[in-house]
Amino acid sequence: LSYTACQVHTSTADASQADADARDPRMTPEMGAGCNPSRPLCRHLRIKEFTQTHVHFVDGTSIPMPDTIIYATGYICTFPFISQVEPVKGAPKPDHQLLSDGDIDGIPNLYKFLVLAYNPLLAILGVPNKVVPFPMYEYQATYLAHLYQRHIQLPPFDQMLDHARSHLEGPRPFTMGFKQVAYMNDLIDCVGDHQSRLGHVPDHWVKSRLHCVEQRKQRLGY
Fold first, then answer.
1. Which of 35, 46, 111, 181 is disulfide-compatible with 115, CB 3.0–4.6 A?
2. Closest among 1, 20, 19, 23 to 10, alpha carbons compared
3. Alpha helices, DSSP H only, in the chain?
4. How many CB atoms lie within 10 A of CB 96?
5. How do residues 138-168 score in pLDDT, each as one tens digit?
6. Distance in angstroms (rounded) separating the CA atoms of residues 22 and 42
7. pLDDT of res. 182
8. Do the Cβ atoms of 57 and 18 come closer than 8 Å?
9. What share of the chain is helix, strand, coil (3-state, %, to 5)?
10. What's the predicted TM-score (pTM) here?
């Protein structure tokens, strides 16, 4: 909630989160969180209701109606139709859907994080997270284009399924981070000599990405 960025208020669901925000080094005026260092960020508990003139919070406080309200609630993605996909011959019918619930943050049974092992005619781009997205999309799209032109042969179903499930070990298996580089190189290795436009991720891109990560750690603390 802001008054033309002269004053910013935040609202959170519980007091412990509000306290955590207060200690978060990213939430200081120096990091831009207050937009105006002379008027630091104001934290509130959950919004109770809106009236024509005010925003009221559950702790009994209120503020005049701001000019902008941003709902940063996050989201849960689901693909319920996956359970209805017709499997390839010899494969059992899948019973999974996309769950972003903290346990599995992607789609189970995706070969190379991309192609549904049960039916490779279905591919879903962009499932890995904590990545630089658009370069990854380009490598994924290049892989799929050559797959569907039959320049690439997929392994048997059992091997695809084993490969897909091997990535589900450990917490948040679809959080890729800097492993994105090896992932994109693997996709382009599978394409091989069928294309010449993309190659391995260039060194200057890797160095630039490493520099950005280091700057984030130094300045934001994570």
1. 111
2. 1
3. 15-23, 133-148, 157-166, 180-191, 203-220
4. 15
5. 999 999 999 999 999 999 998 998 998 888 7
6. 9
7. 94
8. no
9. 35, 10, 50
10. 0.66
